[in-house]
Amino acid sequence: MWLDLRELTLVEVSSESADHPVEEALIPDRGPGWQAAQPGKQIIRLIFDQPCTLRRIILRFEERQRGRTQEFVLRWLSKNHSRREIVRQQYTFSPPGTHEEVEDYYIKLDGVIALELEIIPDISGGSAHASLAMMRLA
């Protein structure tokens, strides 16, 4: 069962396009996903109302316009305020063939008070805007 992030979290974003708010990535069937208003590194932070347990995280990224190599880092903050990295990964988009990245992590994290997704949309320093098509937590 996926968590209802509207009810359980406060969401902070470092940048957000008015046409692609973060709710589009976090709420099922809401839209095509979130996109930053500015190029460069961006952060999406979910702050939980109460410490929770996470067992699964799904992320989906899409890039249909241009080739680029993206890096993302997924971190969690525990109730004792220690920050830990879950995964750091790079992926090369090469549309039209390679235009989607889906990551499905089965984890066991207890006492999670925050989850942070840092996205570097183009590690070569290009002018790409960070985006996230979907994030689901269970």
Structure keywords:
138 residues; mainly beta; Jelly Rolls; 2 helices; 8 strands; globular
Walk me through what this model shows.
The protein is mainly β. The protein has a single domain, classed as Jelly Rolls, CATH 2.60.120.260. Helix content is 6%, strand content 60%. Strands 1, 3, 4, 5, 6 and 8 form a six-stranded antiparallel beta sheet that branches. Strand 4 and strand 5 (83-93) form a beta hairpin. It is globular. It starts with a helix and ends with a strand. The mean pLDDT is 95.
Provide a quick synopsis of the model.
The protein contains 2 helices and 8 strands, in the order H-E-H-E-E-E-E-E-E-E. It is mainly β and 138 residues long. The termini are close together.
Q: Give the class-level CATH name.
A: Mainly Beta
* Number of continuous helical runs: 2
Helix content: under 10%
Structural domains: how many: 1
Considering the protein shown, what is the CATH homologous superfamily? Galactose-binding domain-like
Unreliable residue stretches = none
Largest sheet: 6 strands, antiparallel
Number of strands: 8
Portion in beta strands: over 45%
Q: What fold name goes in the CATH topology slot?
A: Jelly Rolls
Coarse morphology: globular
What is the straight-line distance between the termini? 6 Å
* Structural class by SSE content: mainly beta
How are the secondary structure elements laid out?
Blueprint: H1 5-8, E1 9-13, H2 23-26, E2 34-39, E3 42-62, E4 68-78, E5 83-93, E6 100-120, E7 129-132, E8 134-137
Antiparallel strand pairs: 1-3, 2-7, 3-6, 3-8, 4-5, 4-6
